[in-house]
Structure formats: C-alpha cells, structure tokens
C-alpha cells in the first residue's frame, strides 16, 4: 500500500481528504486503483491511457516521466504526489 | 613588560613584511594575494588599494575565515603606516594562515609612491543605519548591500504574492522594482494583499504599490506598468532592464508568456503559485535548470484549473510563498546560497508541512530544449484556452 497525496483542486473528488491509500506495485496500478474508487478523477489524471500532460506524478520526489512513466515501480509505503499545474497568485 | 615600541619591534621581527615595490609585484602576479585593508571605516572611505576588501583590525579574527576559508590563501594586509597590519599579520599567523604579509609603510607609502588607488563606493550614513542588519551578515556585507541597491527586479502582479515580495524587496533596498498590474484595489483583495489599504480602494494596484514601497524605502525607485503583460508589450517592459523576475501572476497565459520571455532574455524567473492552503515555489534559471514548460508542457483545461477567485485562498498563504520568492530573488541578486533551481518547494499550511520534488530540464522542451520549436511569442490565451495545439 502507498499513500497518494491529492492536490487541493482534486480533493472534492475524494471526499476532501489530503491523502488516499492505494494498492499496487506500479504507478499504473496505483492510479487505476484510485480511479476505480473515485471515477471523477479519471479526466483529471488520464489522457489517452497516459498520465495527462498537465499533471505530474512524483514517486519519492522524482517525476515518473523521468523514470518509467506509468510502469515506474512504487515501493511499499512510498509517497506518491499528484501535482496539477496551478496558476493562482493574486 | 615591553612598551608599545618594543612590542611592535618584536612583532615585526616575527612576521613577514613587504615594501611597496614588492607589494606592487605581488599584486601583478597571477596568484595575487587577497588584499585586506584593516583600517577603520573613515580611513577606508577616503581611498584604498584597488581590489582590497575591508575588515577593520578589531573584526579581523572573527571575519577572516569568511573571506579566506583556505589557510594557505596568500594574504596581504595593510593599514595606514604598517603597524596595525603587523599586529594583524601576527594574529592571522596564530589562526593558522600560512602566507601572510604586512605592507611596511602602509597605504601612506603606497599612495606617496604614486601607485593606483581607488575610492570605494560606500553606503552613506543613513544607508549604513538602515541596512545595518544586512551589512552585519558576512554573505551580504556592504558590498552585497551595494549590489542590492544596483539590482532591478520585475514583479508580475501587485496582488497576493506580489505584496509580500515587493515589500521585502523594497525593505531590503533593491534599487529598482518594476510592477506590472492592470487591476484596481478591490475590497476582496485586502484579506491578503498587504501592499494596499482600505483608503486605496479603487486605485490602480501598481500606483498603490508604488506609494507604499517608496514610503517604506525612499532608496527604491518603483516603476509601475498599469497594463496586463501581453505578447505585444513584453519586449518593451523587458527592455527597461531587469536582473530577476518574480512571477506572482494569477493566470496561465501570463505564466507561459513570462516563462518564454525569461528563457529568451536569460533572466531568472522566481515562480510562486497558491491555492486554498497550499503553495508552490521554484526558480526557473534559463539553461541552468528546467523552465515552466519543462514542468508543465500544457496548461490544464480551464474547467480543471480553478483560480483563487473561484477556489479561495488562506490570506496568509501568499505571505509565506511570496516571502519565499523574495528570499530567492535576493539570493539571486546577491549571488549567494543555493537557489530553488531544479527543485519545486511545496507548502501545505493545513499540515504545516514543506516538501520538495525534483524538477529536470526537458531536452525536448519546445522553448528551452536542445532544438526549440517555439522561438517567438505565440497566442498565449488561445494556447491556454483548452484547445491547445501541440507545439
């Protein structure tokens, strides 16, 4: 099991919580486990079967696009951060 | 017990001295020594040997390690006549410095021999008092403060992030602050935009910012730009010359536009963004690290990207993130420390937690990559409209 950190703009889809546990040994398994339980997240995270281009996924602080993408393995107890772009400044 | 004359004789016999001619040759050599002027401030301000740094005799032991961390570093000490510098050389030897010489005859002989001198630029009395807490920090000092006074920082937005950044940059004595903002002060801004006030409701934010900042520090020149940054005006605004840009914009088109401009003009961009209880900050330093497009190649569709106006923001959050941006901007102006290049700092005010993720430059980035495909300004509003064309 890993903990997935949910960014504030997506929390309404997961009942307002900051972290959601998910099962899986790869980013793909974790994300699809998450989406199976919270289907509202799908359009915000996935685009054509890949991680959407406006979202970054970090495993232990590294962008999975610089690793093996959806196939990046995730160790038990790792923290996964979902990070969509946010523009607010005012 | 020796008297002063005898003690001086004894000390001089224990240290190495050079005369003016030898000193001139040492300074002309490739491995020129660090020149340290140990006189008092009023003597230093009257003129110095070119390239010297100033550490008054009384502070020598406490400050020399900052200036010369390597004990093998050659050091030339001088004072007015060569006596204080002789005692100073003895102290440095006791601290383990191996290559210390004292200039016999001191600055007086140097000047009398017709060798070059220079008048150091210094803070005036009022500035020395105003910036005393900066001058005390070895990494800043008088030189650093003078650098700040010569620095020019452009701020995008005089809002949530821009307020604390601009206040601290002005207080720090950054000589020129440009503020780009096309908005007026609204009552809903005052919960966080501390540059403005109830009395300023309805005023242009850039003008209100100018008044607040120049009242805080008259050393600072504030250049207001009452306009929204666009592809049409960005070159004119950048032509005014900026060392660092602080991005406190509230929309994606401006963020992509300033990113591209910063890459093309090779200006470090201090990024910050906020939403509800969470904020992010990083430094995009062109070609040294990633740019905003390496981090987010595409903006999210508008329906997935609520703004603070829609989603809200804790009033103090921009105070924290904007202050971090000011800290990064000051470090960049001073050339000290490790800026947030290649690192995205995440702050969660609810959990009171900072975390960091690594950012990497994308060699395929359309703007800062090895073979850029975007080389001029595009229609950023369209690019961010949810119908982006893949560049």
Number of H/I helices of chain B? 17
Mean pLDDT of chain A: 92
Q: N-to-C SSE series of chain A? A: EEHHEEEEE
Fraction in helix of chain B: 25-40%
* Average residue pLDDT of chain B: 94
Polypeptide structure, described:
The complex is a heterodimer of chains A (90) and B (391). By secondary structure, chain A is α+β, with helices and mostly antiparallel strands. Chain A has helices spanning 27-37, 42-45; strands at 2-5, 19-22, 46-47, 50-51, 55-59, 62-63, 79-84. In chain A, the strands form two sheets. Chain A has a five-stranded mixed β-sheet, with helices on one face. A two-stranded antiparallel sheet of chain A has the order 3-4. With 391 residues, chain B is of the alpha/beta class. Chain B has an eight-stranded mixed β-sheet, sandwiched between helices. In chain B, helix 10 (162-171) packs parallel to helix 11 and helix 10 packs across helix 16. Chain B is elongated. At the A-B interface, strand 5, strand 6 and strand 7 of A face strand 10, helix 15, strand 12 and strand 13 of B.
What's the gist of this structure?
The complex is a heterodimer of chains A (90) and B (391). By secondary structure, chain A is α+β, with helices and mostly antiparallel strands.
